[in-house]
Write a structure and sequence with these properties.
- The chain is of the alpha/beta class.
- Helix content is 33%, strand content 22%.
- It is built from 12 helices and 15 strands.
- The strands form 4 sheets. A 7-stranded parallel beta sheet has the order 5-6-7-8-9-10-11. It has a 4-stranded antiparallel beta sheet with strand order 3-2-1-15, with helices on both faces. It has a two-stranded antiparallel ribbon with strand order 4-13.
- Helix 5 links the parallel strand 5 and strand 6.
- The longest helix is centred in the first third of the chain and has 18 residues.
- Bound molecules: 2-succinylbenzoate (OSB) and magnesium ion (MG).
Length: 373
């Protein structure tokens, strides 16, 4: 593969409803989209970084800087054959996984198109069973002003067909919320995501949740503290899942070695792309550790990538991959993703590559700045 041209777009889209977490409130979703052209094909990628560094140290601005000054100039030089080689080529930049993942996805898109495969088929090449056709999904619900409003929102999603909900928690908005959710929806698959808002000293709070039969508790402790999670795990019954802590394969190896979690949320962005995400999937599968695909309010470009990843055999738990209508009125990419109501799944695209098209009018309307290399 020789790369001919790269276009980088900074886009902003309004969310259907503000998304509130323990690290902040978001009305708009800023994203960087990359279009990589190679030998007549164009691949798309998305950078999931946020405007502020509340979830990760990376922001839209740092990703713009790392992409324009370092990654893109490097990618444009020389030749390579596989997405894995490109992933290695980007290793000279330490960290910045969200920036790297945007290029990585575009290269995977091109490689799949070149081979006449959907991205799911391309990623599933090492697996004899091939990709799943539909993947189980849930919905991630931000912090609402009251518990009552949260229950109404949950109810709305249930009537749309979602069978698993994730409730965001933060200190003061946790146990009572979880109890009310369990009381109101006795059979529902409910999980909580704290986004690192607690300390080990809060163990009593999590023990009080033991009886609620939650599917899992996601990243309760410090974003960088795998050790403290290993201390918490044997003290609670709810399965413990890591998100923020797992920024690459080595972190996953370490977490499993010290038994710091029961489950891993694999976000391709957070781990530097689909190549690394698949390695973590393989590791967890060999250890029988369940994994699921996380999200960061991606546009249709990133969501198509999430769906392809989630089609791999080790992804046995529902992903944070909701229908387009949960995020945006009108998305940049088409077709829209819809929920299959009867089984809370989304169908994995089957056209070559990502299987979505970026709509030029919508892209132009959402673009804040753009640069061509
Ligand atoms: O912690 O999983 C998270 C969104 C932005 C940043 C972090 C997280 C999230 C979500 C939303 O929970 C998941 C989605 O895209 O639906
Ligand atoms: Mg999370």
């Amino acid at each position: 593969m020789i790369i001919d041209e790269i276009n980088l777009y900074h886009v902003s889209q309004k969310l259907v409803r503000p998304f509130v977490t323990s690290f902040g409130r978001q009305h708009l979703r800023h994203a960087l989209l990359v279009a990589v052209s190679s030998e007549g094909l164009t691949g798309w990628g998305e950078c999931a970084a946020n405007e502020s560094p509340g979830y990760s140290y990376e922001t839209t601005q740092t990703a713009w800087h790392i992409l324009t000054e370092f990654l893109i100039p490097k990618v444009l030089v020389g030749e390579f054959e596989t997405p894995e080689e490109m992933s290695q080529k980007m290793e000279f930049v330490r960290g910045h996984p969200l920036a790297k993942a945007s290029i990585d996805l575009a290269i995977w898109d091109i490689a799949a198109q070149r081979d006449g495969l959907s991205l799911a088929q391309k990623l599933a090449e090492p697996f004899p069973e091939g990709p799943r056709e539909r993947v189980k999904v849930g919905v991630s619900i931000g912090i609402q002003p009251t518990i009552g409003e949260t229950m109404e929102i949950v109810d709305g999603y249930l009537s749309q067909g979602y069978q698993r909900v994730k409730l965001k928690i933060r200190p003061g908005h946790d146990l009572a919320l979880a109890r009310e959710a369990r009381r109101t929806f006795p059979e529902l698959q409910i999980m909580l995501d704290a986004n690192s808002a607690y300390r080990l000293a809060d163990v009593n709070l999590f023990q009080a949740m033991d009886e609620l039969e939650l599917v899992m508790l996601e990243q309760p402790l410090n974003y960088d503290d795998i050790y403290d999670h290993s201390q918490l795990k044997p003290m609670i019954e709810t399965p413990l899942c890591l998100d923020e802590c797992i920024t690459n394969l080595n972190k996953a190896r370490f977490a499993l070695a010290i038994d710091a979690c029961d489950i891993i949320n694999i976000k391709p962005g957070r781990v530097g792309g689909w190549t690394e995400a698949r390695k973590i999937h393989d590791l967890c599968r060999s250890r029988k550790v369940p994994v699921w695909v996380g999200g960061m309010l991606e546009t249709g470009v990133g969501r198509a990538g999430q769906l392809a990843l989630a089609s791999l055999p080790g992804f046995t738990l529902p992903g944070d991959i909701s229908a387009t209508s949960r995020y945006y009125q009108e998305d940049i990419a088409q077709p829209e993703f819809r929920l299959n109501q009867h089984d809370s799944t989304i169908t994995v695209p089957t056209d070559p590559g990502l299987g979505v098209q970026v709509n030029p009018k919508r892209l132009a309307a959402a673009t804040i700045r753009q640069v061509t290399f």
